[in-house]
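Late entry, written up from scratch paper. The run itself happened at the end of the previous shift, but nothing got recorded in the book at the time, so transcribing now.
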Amino acid sequence: MAKQSGGYLGGYSGKLGPVVGYLWNGKWCVRSCPTMVRNPRTVKQMERRALFREQVRLAASMRDGVMRGLTEPAREAGMTAYNLFVSLNQPAFGSAEGALQVAWEELTLSVGPVAPVVFEEASVDERNVLSVKFRDGALSSGRRSKQDEVRVYVYCPDLEKGVLSATAYRHERSLRLLLPTFFAGHELRVYGFVQNAEGESSPTVYVPVDGGTEPATVAAGQAGGVKKDLAVSGKKRKFASSVGADAAEEKADLQQDG
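Output as recorded:
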């Protein structure tokens, strides 16, 4: 910092060439312009950028669920559904050695004023059919209508792919979804939410698939005589491949989307 000599023009404030003039403690002073770093490339900044890219990539891989649950609130917030997803899920994101870590059970795919339903049970059978039971929670706050649509979104982190169920209504109390055969042997994460006719949503509900801790085995003779092991571990579920003929026969009766 240096004092201004003034001259016949007196003191000045603002930028003049490589220096900035300003008034401090009743005296006119001058100092060098601060160096502007428009694109800092510190280690921490680069790590943050890399993690942000991974978060956006996750949002893109969950596109069907994100777009279905967050399009309307994102429009109201003046941002894209992907950006809203990243913003809402910061508490669920972490990092380990520069890699993105996700608390899957805390992930948010929908927000809004619609009353949620209570998901009571979800299971996967030997034909790779996900069955979800639910009921309307009388004590749940929020808007509700008989025309509200209940959906589940099933995501496979290993494959970075997901599938969205077709519509079920509050009074139907259950829905079924034929899962892709390439999901076989991989961990699944299931999320449920409700939407009304205006596109508004309920908060997301994480839906555990089978609550047991012991592996379940499909008896020989079922599913075309092919024995399948259905491994269950807490809230994480792995399941066997479906049998083509049986799965095709079942497909006509199942709800699926995307």
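The first strand starts at residue 2 and ends at 3.
(Scratch paper discarded after transcription.)
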